[in-house]
Amino acid sequence: MPMCVTYGASMAARQQVIDLHTHSCCSDGTQSPADLVRTAAQAGVDVVAVTDHDVTTGWDEAGKQGEELGVRVVPGIELSCQAGGISVHLLAYLPDPQHSDLATMLQRVRQQRNTRLRTMVQRLAEDDYPVDYDEIVAHSGAGATLGRPHVADALVRAGVYPDRDAAFAEVLHGRSRYYVRHWAPDGLDAVRTVRAAGGVPVMAHPFASARGRTVSEGVIQEMAHAGMLGLEVDHRDHTDADRARGAGLCDRWGLIPTGSSDYHGTGKPNRIAEHTTSPESLERIVAVGTGTQMRGASLP
Ligand code: AMP
Ligand code: ZN
Ligand code: FE
Ligand code: FE
């Protein structure tokens, strides 16, 4: 009996493992949504958000796998936006995917991304890089949101670079002659649209400066005034000082702090649940997110 008591106490004390930012092959992750949830289950994750770039197609498959494995799945999106020309990634939890303004916004970003990727591939091919747009589409998930990582993968397949990182460092970074920008909605419009769709907007990696310019605190505050509800504080691209700053802004402005892995399968070194979100923050998100239901299931 004492064994049972000890066991019970330790079960009660175990904190839920919650990772609210991951990618499947519906965008630039390397695993199917089901495999992504399997990886989460194996890593002891209780709650995982599937947040593919600008697309919601992975939600159902991830949710079904979550039901089988006892993992809760939070339907999400990582929306590509911009503020004054600076790229902003906005996580949107539990939005209604059928909300017409949101659906239109997502479709427009994806279409513009595809056009832009075609131009980047053309520029590379003109300089004799062995890349072909149709080959890239054929190797991507059906209807996947295409991005530079897909071009990186093509260059890796062709043996030009050993991995995505090397391809980004040489030809795919933002100051490369092959780089082409794409249209993205203004951050304020995106925040309002996500809220109108019943979703919870949280700015992803607000201070991740290694891959380009980041927005000012003034922009973050404006987005908060427009209805943004949280900041991703714990993320591998944030320094300790960035995290302290993010936590401070959350305290000051009443925003929800989150932490997540930004897992991309083998596409990035990020390990699932390497950073996590507190149950309190998840509760705050679920209390506001009314656009769609959580999927999957928790183990009895
Ligand atoms: P895009 O949205 O098409 O401009 O491409 C940006 C995407 O590439 C983001 O999802 C980043 O996570 C990813 N990315 C940026 N730099 C790298 C890198 N060095 N290695 C792998 N992925 C990267
Ligand atoms: Zn990505
Ligand atoms: Fe991002
Ligand atoms: Fe991401």
Strand content: 15-25%
> Could you state the order of secondary-structure elements as H and E?
HEHEHEEHHHHHEHEHEHE
- As a percent range, the share of helical residues equals 40-55%
Helical stretch tally: 11
The computed structural class is: alpha/beta
> Given the C-alpha coordinates, what overall shape results?
globular
| Largest sheet features | 8 strands, mixed
Describe the structure.
The protein has helices at residues 2-13, 33-42, 59-69, 100-126, 133-138, 148-157, 164-172, 187-196, 217-225, 240-253, 279-288, and strands at 18-22, 47-53, 72-83, 86-93, 200-203, 230-234, 256-259, 295-296. With 300 residues, it is α/β, with parallel strands linked by helices. The longest helix is centred in the middle third of the chain and has 27 residues, at 100-126.
List the helices and strands and how they pair.
Elements: H1 2-13, E1 18-22, H2 33-42, E2 47-53, H3 59-69, E3 72-83, E4 86-93, H4 100-126, H5 133-138, H6 148-157, H7 164-172, H8 187-196, E5 200-203, H9 217-225, E6 230-234, H10 240-253, E7 256-259, H11 279-288, E8 295-296
Parallel strand pairs: 1-2, 2-3, 5-6, 6-7
Antiparallel strand pairs: 3-4, 3-8, 4-5
Bound molecules: adenosine monophosphate, zinc ion and fe (iii) ion (2 copies).
